[in-house]
Amino acid sequence: MTTQGSGTESAAEFAHVEDGFERLWTPHRMAYILGDKPTEAAGHGCPFCAAPQKPDAEGLIVHRGEHCYVVMNLFPYNPGHVLVCPYRHVSLYVDLTDEETTEFTALTKQAIGALQGASEPHGFNLGMNQGAVAGAGVAAHLHQHIVPRWSGDSNFLPIIAQTKALPVLLEDTRSRLVAAWPTD
């Protein structure tokens, strides 16, 4: 049924079940849910092998090192959620070379500094999920999450609706982080 003169359906006419919940639809997440999952082979569908092959803005690269790089998380938990990744397609932290491990750690520290300069978070979550059973969405390519946190940044949406409201675009956050990246 259409609303008089508007040509659109009235919200009251939509099929629904009264349960007391509002809905925040996030159809963009279906690209992640239904998308091809990387295989163990380097470069074969691996987003962390593909990102460094693109220009920085297109690949959402924040900073490039010699052995590792920092990239925006395409499906962030919070604004500024970045990942530290080795260029080499390796799945476990213990498989990094000494040089990769040193740079991986240095880039983690630099990313925290850039996030502090760009958005002044109150804290951080750092973590690596190694293996699908541990929660790694891309288990074949090691990556460490750096998630900035603010007092009160968590509400009912992630808990009840498995949805996160993000007030800043990835491109805008990336630009702020690039500008705030520490220089040696």
**Can you tell me the residue ranges where pLDDT is under 50 for at least 5 consecutive residues?**
none
Structural class: alpha+beta
Distance between the termini: 64 Å
- Count, helices: 6
Care to give the gist of this entry?
With 184 residues, the protein is of the alpha+beta class. The protein has helices spanning 30-34, 47-50, 56-59, 98-119, 156-161, 170-180, and strands at residues 61-64, 68-72, 82-86, 123-127, 144-149.
Descriptors for this entry?
184 residues; alpha+beta; five-stranded antiparallel beta sheet; 14% strand
Describe this entry's structure for a reader.
By secondary structure, the chain is an alpha+beta fold. It is 28% helix and 14% strand. The chain contains six helices and five strands. A five-stranded antiparallel β-sheet has the order 1-2-3-5-4. A hairpin with a 3-residue loop joins β1 and β2. It is globular.
Summarize the helices and strands and which ones pair or pack.
Elements lengths: L29 H5 L12 H4 L5 H4 L1 E4 L3 E5 L9 E5 L11 H22 L3 E5 L16 E6 L6 H6 L8 H11 L4
Helix pairs in contact: 4-6
